[in-house]
Amino acid sequence: MDETMRLIQMAHEGDKAARDRLVTENFGLIWSIVRRFTGRGYEPEDLFQIGSIGLMKAIDKFDLSYEVKFSTYAVPMITGEIKRFLRDDGIIKVSRSIKEMGLKVKNVREELVYRFGREPTVEEIAGEIGASKEEVAASIEAGAEVESLYRSVNKNDENSLLLIDKIEEESSAQEELLNRMVLRELLTDLSDKDREIIIRRYYYNETQSQIADKLGISQVQVSRLEKKILKQMREKL
User: What does this protein's UniProt record list under function (predicted)?
Assistant: First the structure.
């Protein structure tokens, strides 16, 4: 198990230091994604905070059984978080100061939910960011329509799905994206010849005979190789 996987496992077991280290070590990844969204009327630092939330979600939701690099899994999570912010922001027009407070509240709320295992109170959030209860309440109210997407379906269950996870279309798209990422990782591990056979067979829909002609081998050899390669891929999955 490499260092990143070890830290993720420790974070899943409640090690806050390991989680914080993972976030810090992936600052560069967040900034690389933030740069894609510059020039849209938002400060890069604001988008970085939103991207950080996506990264923390990626850490919490990453399944160690995935045959995929963590960074590969984290990129669509971070990107999705920023896109949702850009899509939903502006539904309720608020002052810049309230908007900035809302970003802090959202970030701190995520941290406290992870730390306490429950929804934090307004007083706890206010104490964490050094603001008054009134300021925190105003920022929460201003962002209520957006924040509702991130409310737990069952508040009594810390592992409950979020409402946004219940949106079927987005969930299906994310599952399809993950499947493609896993397949890409599996293909990367194959030799050039084995990879060509799989791509020609299942991407270009060529017959075994057509592949045999192009590779200069027999159809029987292609059949044997295909079975061997698929078995190796299944074992890795």
Answer: Sigma factors are initiation factors that promote the attachment of RNA polymerase to specific initiation sites and are then released.
Residue 70: which residues within 8 A CB-CB, separation 6 or more?
4, 5, 8, 58, 62
Q: How many CB atoms lie within 10 A of CB 90?
A: 11
Predicted confidence (pLDDT) per residue in 189-237, tens digit = 788 888 888 888 877 778 888 899 988 999 889 989 988 888 887 777 6
Beta partners for 152? 162
Between CA 96 and CA 202 the distance in angstroms is 52
Report how far residue 46's alpha carbon sits from residue 53's, in angstroms, rounded to the nearest whole number. 11
Please give the domain boundaries of the chain with CATH numbers for all domains: 3-168 (1.20.120), 189-236 (1.10.10)
- State how far the Cα of 40 lies from the Cα of 210, in Å rounded to an integer: 50
What is the distance between the alpha carbons of residues 73 and 76, in angstroms, rounded to a whole number?
6
Cα–Cα nearest to 22, from 61, 70, 64 = 70
Sign of CA dihedral 123, 116, 4, 191: negative
Whether the full predicted model's pTM is greater than 0.90, yes or no, is: no
**Helices marked H in 13-116:** 16-25, 27-34, 44-61, 70-88, 96-116
Q: What is the DSSP letter of 186?
A: H
CB 162 within 8 A of CB 151: yes
Alpha carbon distance 59, 72 (integer Å): 12
